[in-house]
Amino acid sequence: MKTENILDAMGALEESMLMESLPQKRRNFRPLAAVAILAAALCVTAGAAYLIAPAIVPKGDRQMVQMEYGGVDWPEGKAEELLARAEKQRAVSKMPLTRFDSLEEMEADLELELLDNDLRTQEQCHYQVFGNANSRIDIFVYYYPWDGNAVSHDAGDLRVSIMAYVNPAAGEGIGWVLPQKKVTEWTQTSVYQMTHLDTAARIYCDKDGAQAWFVKDGIGYEVSCRGGVQVMQMVLDSFHY
Amino acid sequence: MDNEGIVSLFFARDENAIREARQAHGRALAALALRILGDSRDAEECVSDGLFRAWNTIPPQQPRDLGAFLAKIVRGLAIDRLRAREAQKRGAGEYCLSLEELSECVGGTDTAFEQGALTEAIGDYLRSLSPQARWIFLRRYFWFERVEDIARAGGFTQSKVKSTLSRARKGLREHLEKEGFDL
Fold it and tell me: What is B3-84's CATH topology?
């Protein structure tokens, strides 16, 4: 069979199917309701950081952000407040959400993304998963490129890392973005705190947007955020980098 | 005028049908043909030919959606025209790029099969995809839109569109093999 045969056959597809894809029609693939709040929490990391970090962290001591919210004890009502802000931010940014049928499919998607962005070797890509010992909050950090214990920083590329705090059981989570040079410090601190993993939220950022992969009840999800770079730049600005 | 009204003009053998159809769908049809042929004059001729063919086929045909119906005609005409060009086999344009991408689905050899069955199998496969993946696949391989345009229209990153297409092509190959096609 030749490739032309495939394209020819597609030319005879039912019109009802083609109608769905008419170029005049723009599609807005909205989030799945069942995981909207989790998606929101993951995808508005930037906005959340902008909103909360300056308020709760003494200037010059940003690691405290992680220490406080990455640990077991969230301040009374703080998680709900942050999630409400996250949901509001999500509604503004209109982020699409992709559902994968299996974890394997999601993993394959992630690999494709890495290849597509010339992150081709394990040496260049590294991610770590941290779980809170009390299972209150699980954390996944994904960042690149990885160089031993240090994360190299390419200022011209605006590559940043996203940290997410997720509590799938409660359907809530929150996170934020930091430049890679700060991630190293953050990671070194976290390694001692976090000891196991139940669930992972996978966060990945590229130049033309922000994308997140995460798992809930054994099903993988991906979230895309349009204009992610601009949002992240806003966060970087908020941290005075 | 809406599609229903235009189709009524065709049935009434009112030549305004062609003018109205061109007004309603001409731009999209020309864009489709241009993505295949890469030449605006050829594309316009394809649109005119397509509208003429529609005039000759409606009635008896009664399209469910005039836009999709005309697109199928113009798409076929544009591909035929492209194939008629010598030394254009691997030329520029989204059609040729699509051919390259889809080459991973098939072996590239001459094999016997029934075209209608292939269309049905592809249709079945597309129906099994998520609405989002199906939308991306059709925008690329029916409408021959560029990846960046699909990404913009759907609110995705380009890399997401590429990865979705890659998965869909792989899935299509597996589906066709399962359906007994000799790829």
Answer: Rna Polymerase Sigma Factor; Chain: A (1.10.1740)
